[in-house]
Amino acid sequence: MPPRTAGLLAWPHLLAAALAACECGYVSSINGTADTALFTDMLETDFTQNPPLGVHTDWAPQAFNLTRDRARGPYGELFAVANVGVSGGKGGEEEEEEEEEGLELVVGGRGAVVDGMVPVAEVDSTRLDVWWGTFRASMRMTRVPGTCAAFFWYFNDTQEIDMEFLSREFSAANGSYPVNLVLQSREAAVAGYNAARTGTFVKAHLPFDPTDGFHEYRMDYVPGRVFFYADGQRLAEMDGPAVPTTAGHLILQHWSNGNEFWSGGPPAEDAVLAVRYVKAYFNSSAPERQRDWAARCRDPAAAGAVCSIPDVTLANASAAGWFFKNQGNTTNNQTASGQNDGARLQRLWWPAVVGLLLLASGWVVAL
Ligand SMILES: *[C@@H]1O[C@H](CO)[C@@H](O)[C@H](O)[C@H]1NC(C)=O
Ligand SMILES: *[C@@H]1O[C@H](CO)[C@@H](O)[C@H](O)[C@H]1NC(C)=O
Ligand SMILES: *[C@@H]1O[C@H](CO)[C@@H](O)[C@H](O)[C@H]1NC(C)=O
Ligand SMILES: *[C@@H]1O[C@H](CO)[C@@H](O)[C@H](O)[C@H]1NC(C)=O
Ligand SMILES: *[C@@H]1O[C@H](CO)[C@@H](O)[C@H](O)[C@H]1NC(C)=O
Ligand SMILES: *[C@@H]1O[C@H](CO)[C@@H](O)[C@H](O)[C@H]1NC(C)=O
Ligand SMILES: *[C@@H]1O[C@H](CO)[C@@H](O)[C@H](O)[C@H]1NC(C)=O
Ligand SMILES: *[C@@H]1O[C@H](CO)[C@@H](O)[C@H](O)[C@H]1NC(C)=O
């Protein structure tokens, strides 16, 4: 076999096509422009596209009940697939707004409480191999006080990275819009899962009204450090022993248990968390994905072998509409919803996620 470069020189017309495929991964800024990191895998879901969630292979709506005790509040929580919808579905206060976009996670109003449980919503990524990465979700918060909207990365109750928005804390009157940033550590477990009593809890203030439109919330998880952002603006940085070390999965959740110190509620009426997209670029813990990368990435220095991930910023929101999967030949051997590659990967991991998939298909039927 001749050396690879000789082959390319012999067929120069093949050069661009063969090399512009991001085969060595995706590079993200970390901590503003202070640093960068390379990630090998991606999961991009645009919930505003057809076909919507459920036909996708990326996310699984959850169905389980938490008693009052397990929910740690005066109410239990009923996680129902029916409370996960797509554009134009059920909606309380936001129904009059011009366009419903994307995924909707509904918390039922007081009148909807069933057997002492508030109807609430959760979807989980079906991939469980999400290790170091940059995780980005475009969301619009509810204006109805009494819910907790959460975007988080999760392995177990002591390996967890969390952005939690309490709608009762939003105050249009004094322009105060906090977000609670949490690492649930072993220390937090000892403190009764109250990370507020540990060093890995920050209440940051958003520079905009999160109920007023979609904004990108982002967590970067790299060895020994976690960074949180809103529209590209750094909110906090955490390090130390509470930073997780394992691979996990991503979760979108909207809930209420009536606990006056946290979610408050239940809300007076149905409350909707809307999600336009999740874009996650990460390293996989799955040996077959690591092997795939090693086989795919022949020369990281070759033109187009490594691709830059554009950042959404306060000054330039246009990257919010940007997906690799719309750029042509930049998602070879990746999962991006609507693409066959994703379906192939899903089948590989069928045994690990079979329960979640059954729930997902139940949801499709429920539609
Ligand atoms: C896409 O990239 C791959 C390399 O990963 C290459 O083999 C293929 O020819 C490219 N396809 C097109 C249509 O450019
Ligand atoms: C992140 O950026 C901030 C502000 O630019 C800087 O103070 C901090 O040291 C950086 N953190 C790391 C881990 O580089
Ligand atoms: C992700 O994996 C690639 C390939 O092994 C490696 O080059 C890169 O440094 C890893 N990224 C992080 C943040 O560890
Ligand atoms: C949750 O509780 C409701 C009401 O009691 C019940 O109808 C439903 O079957 C339960 N769901 C699960 C997953 O146990
Ligand atoms: C979570 O996982 C870590 C790493 O495997 C382990 O050390 C820890 O004990 C686990 N925590 C819980 C609550 O299971
Ligand atoms: C204004 O913000 C403070 C926190 O900074 C809060 O304690 C107070 O309740 C808010 N005021 C109103 C009217 O909500
Ligand atoms: C805004 O972001 C888009 C998408 O990443 C990029 O193409 C464009 O150059 C950016 N504009 C400015 C002014 O930075
Ligand atoms: C990635 O490529 C390898 C080798 O061709 C293949 O076995 C694997 O199924 C591919 N995975 C995806 C998600 O396309």
From TrEMBL:
Residues 1-29 form the signal peptide. The keyword Nucleotide-binding does not apply. PROSITE patterns: GH16_2 (PS51762), PROKAR_LIPOPROTEIN (PS51257). One of its GO terms (molecular function) is hydrolase activity, hydrolyzing O-glycosyl compounds. It comes from the Eukaryota. Keywords: Hydrolase, Signal. Residues 45-286 form the GH16 domain. GO terms for biological process: carbohydrate metabolic process. It holds the Pfam family Glyco_hydro_16. This is Glycoside hydrolase family 16 protein. It comes from Trichocladium antarcticum. The lineage of its organism: Eukaryota, Fungi, Dikarya, Ascomycota, Pezizomycotina.
